[in-house]
Specification:
Chain B: This is Cell division ATP-binding protein FtsE. The complex is a heterodimer. Chain A is of the alpha+beta class. Chain A is about 75% helix and about 5% strand. Chain B contains 7 helices and 10 strands. The chains are: A alpha+beta, B alpha/beta. The structure holds adenosine-5'-triphosphate and magnesium ion.
Chain lengths: ~325, ~220
């Protein structure tokens, strides 16, 4: 018996080697067959498939939309960077002629791109105008405002602007230098906060996608339990059993991704009017960035991968429980 | 081909479904397995295809201790054994043809070759003309024959059958048994579990008799 057994396994080994190419072909054939078969199964129940995909799409839209908005905010940030200025307030005793000389001294500094002098009188006029307090201020005995120089730095990065401020403060006649970009920094912190929130949401909603797909696939596995038992009885491997479900998961993910792209495009169109109007009212030109080809490709790849992963988790958890009777 | 050495199977920690089993089945033999309901016939067959693992002792099939198979090897081991199940285990949402083709599909056989083998197997059990039918459209006996076609389509060296004539009429039962004898004649080792003592007696093959999980008789063909 054992010599016969050896003979058998030797023969087995030979056919095995001879058909390595054949095995790859049959593997490819099964992948093709299962991808088609699982797509057909989804199409057989179009409404419930669509609902699952929609649930996936909704989970994807929020983080993807936020990410797009932040991307837009970064562009806005760059634009605002260029408008960062410093204001150098001159000492009270400085008269207009001296102020002019100080402005020249400041503009000679290598870190300074541009300067504009606001004399005490001009400052007062601007102040009155902007506050609408002409009468009240006119009653003041003198002009309490100092002259000032608005400085546009050559290099607008926050550190070098801050360094420039220190250097300009040392110039005689300059009382104090104020950075006008404190609010800009606040915006940056907000943007960073936004990024983290987006990341957290992406993780949470990504898990949501896993759950949606996992639950759908769990039901599919349950429905095909008998089939799984039978093929296991007659020698199907776990990858063979898993394959159709993994493809279903990937199809759900892809479908959800496509719907999400559509929703983002629609939503972008719908919001673009108010958004650019709002931006224009702040004197900035800002448009919501579109998803574009690259963004869509990334979104679809992520959603397909999430679908596949959700299916993998569900099937693996479930296969362990299914034992043929 | 099969060797049981001091095999015992205990379910749920206290109930011995099988105990002290010692026997060998040589390559090319045909053996009946009989005994009352609950004697352990199905359990014994399930041990051979490693649906269950013995609580004690070891089982050698083709010289290999099957308890030592890694779980990833088990599917490949099962592919070498044809099994006719007590309850058919057909897939009711696909045609007779696709049911019989299933083992070949699992092995990734090239479709043209597979189709040739499926037709040969269906022809052998006399159901070639029903290949497009669904299992539900077939009688119990015909379904049983589909199960047999699926078990032999892969030309296994070992064929196991659990009550293949379960509730069939005597004529059909005799036909099915002679089908197994045909496979045995071309070299397949065959093991058939059955209650049908009259039929078994008529066929004159070695018979293993189980009683409450113990082997109480091993009668050579007379
Ligand atoms: N999974 C299981 N868990 C617990 N007990 C089991 C299990 N499978 C079988 N048994 C018990 O083992 C004993 C043998 O069962 P088995 O199915 O092997 O009998 P059988 O000879 O095939 O009977 P039948 O002729 O009715 O099919 C029975 O008493 C049964 O209750
Ligand atoms: Mg039984």
């Amino acid at each position: 018996m054992s010599s016969q057994g050896q003979e058998r396994s030797r023969r087995g080994a030979r056919t095995h080697r001879a058909s390595a190419g054949g095995r790859w072909r049959s593997w490819g054939r099964h992948h093709r067959a299962m991808s088609l078969d699982s797509a057909q199964r989804l199409l057989r129940y179009p409404l419930s498939s669509l609902l699952t995909m929609l649930a996936i799409a909704i989970a994807l839209v929020l983080p993807a939309g936020l990410w797009l908005a932040l991307d837009g905010a970064r562009l806005l940030d760059a634009e605002l960077d260029e408008s960062a200025t410093l204001t150098a307030y001159l000492a009270d005793r400085v008269d207009d002629g001296e102020a002019g000389r100080i402005e020249e001294a400041l503009s000679a500094h290598e870190g300074v791109a541009e300067t504009r002098l606001i004399t005490a009188a001009e400052g007062m006029a601007e102040f009155q105008q902007s506050l609408g307090l002409e009468d009240a201020l006119a009653r003041l005995p003198g002009n309490p405002l100092p002259a000032s120089v608005v400085v546009t730095p050559a290099d607008t990065s926050p550190e070098s602007v801050r360094r420039l401020a220190g250097e300009l403060e040392a110039v005689s006649g300059v009382e104090e230098v104020r950075l006008d970009f404190a609010w800009l920094e606040r915006l940056r912190h907000l943007a960073e906060l936004g990024q983290r929130v987006t990341l957290a949401l992406a993780v949470l909603f990504g898990m949501g996608v896993l759950l949606v797909v996992g639950n759908t696939i769990r039901l599919a596995v349950e429905n095909r339990r008998q089939e799984i038992e039978v093929v296991t009885l007659i020698g199907a491997t776990h990858p063979f059993v898993r394959r159709p479900f993994l493809y279903s998961g990937a199809w759900y993910g892809l479908g959800g991704g496509i719907l999400a792209c559509g929703l983002l495009t629609l939503g972008g169109d719908w919001l673009s009017g108010p958004v650019s109007a709002l931006a224009a009212s702040y004197g900035a030109s800002f448009a919501l960035p579109a998803l574009g080809f690259g963004g869509s490709a990334i979104l679809l790849a992520c959603s397909t991968l999430l679908g596949w992963l959700g299916a993998w988790i569900a099937v693996s958890r479930h296969l362990a429980q299914i034992r043929p009777r | 081909m099969i060797a049981f050495e001091h095999v015992g199977k205990r379910y749920g920690g206290r109930f011995d479904a099988l105990a002290h089993l010692n026997f060998r089945v040589e390559r090319g033999e045909m053996v009946f397995l009989t005994g009352h309901s609950g004697a352990g016939k199905s359990s014994l067959l399930r041990l051979i295809i490693r649906l269950e693992r013995p609580s004690r002792g070891r089982i050698l099939v083709a010289g290999h201790d099957i308890d030592r198979l890694h779980h990833t090897q088990v599917p490949f081991y099962r592919r070498q054994i044809g099994v006719v199940f007590q309850d058919h285990q057909l897939l009711f949402d696909r045609s007779i043809y696709h049911n019989v083709a299933l083992p070949l599909e699992i092995q990734g056989m090239e479709p043209r070759e597979a189709s040739r083998r499926v037709r040969a197997a269906l022809d052998k059990v006399g159901l070639l003309h029903r290949e497009r039918a669904l299992p539900i459209e077939l009688s119990g006996g015909e379904q049983q024959r589909v199960g047999i076609a699926r078990a032999v389509v892969n030309k296994p060296a070992l064929l196991l059958a659990d009550e293949p004539t379960g509730n069939l009429d005597p004529q059909l039962s005799a036909d099915i048994m002679s089908l197994f004898e045909d496979f045995n004649r071309i070299g397949t080792t065959v093991m058939v579990a059955s209650h049908d003592l009259a039929l078994i007696a008529r066929l004159r093959h070695r018979t293993l008799r189980l009683h409450e999980g113990r082997l109480v008789a091993d009668e050579e063909a007379v």
